[in-house]
């Protein structure tokens, strides 16, 4: 199995498109930067290596005049990332806009297919999030993290037999910007009720700007759209 490295060129296995590996969220999730500059969290098993990019084979170590071996150049993938590009900012997108998205692997077989659950941040704010589910009279934390502006993150893949785990969920969100002043958006706690029957209705899944496949977007928080 080929090991992916930062800088490798890849294409998506089950979707149109691809890009360059810009980093890794975990051993199973890589960040693919597309031609528009968006970093898309993607399962490593869902990408195919097209070109290993700048990761050419390292030259053999040279011996110095006194017989000592020069140190090998470190692999770029092993170096810490010290440069972070400035997040994308779009005019008219300073209104908090976060959605939960469900993408079926096979929209024609909703009763037998698997689904992907994504969190989509379509605004100029960084968003810290926590996703909670009911548990034994209280709640249990299922997912938490941070989304950069105009990015999305894969929360999990699940079969249709586990649709009920998404029927009642609660999001806690707060948003901010880095290295600049900004209008303070509201801190949000949003309970959602997601009816499992919607997953079996073909018209539920529609084309969106965020996915190459049909998806169901469930608004989590959407402030009034600001004029550009």
What is the strand and helix layout of this fold?
Layout: E1 9-12, E2 18-24, E3 29-33, E4 39-43, E5 47-51, E6 97-104, E7 114-121, E8 126-135, E9 138-147, E10 151-159, E11 168-176, E12 188-193, E13 206-208, E14 211-222
Could you list some keywords that capture this structure?
5-stranded antiparallel beta sheet; globular; 228 residues; SH3 type barrels; 44% strand; Immunoglobulin-like; mainly beta
Describe the protein.
The protein has 228 residues and is mainly beta. It has two domains: 9-51, SH3 type barrels (Roll), CATH 2.30.30; 97-222, Smr-associated-like (Immunoglobulin-like, Sandwich). Helices cover 0% and strands 44% of the residues. It has strands spanning 9-12, 18-24, 29-33, 39-43, 47-51, 97-104, 114-121, 126-135, 138-147, 151-159, 168-176, 188-193, 206-208, 211-222. The strands form three sheets. The chain has a five-stranded antiparallel sheet with strand order 4-3-2-1-5, with no helix packed on it. Strands 10-7-6-14-13 form a five-stranded antiparallel sheet, with no helix packed on it. A hairpin with a 2-residue loop joins strand 13 and strand 14 (211-222). The N and C termini lie far apart (48 Å). The model is unreliable at 53-71 (pLDDT under 50).
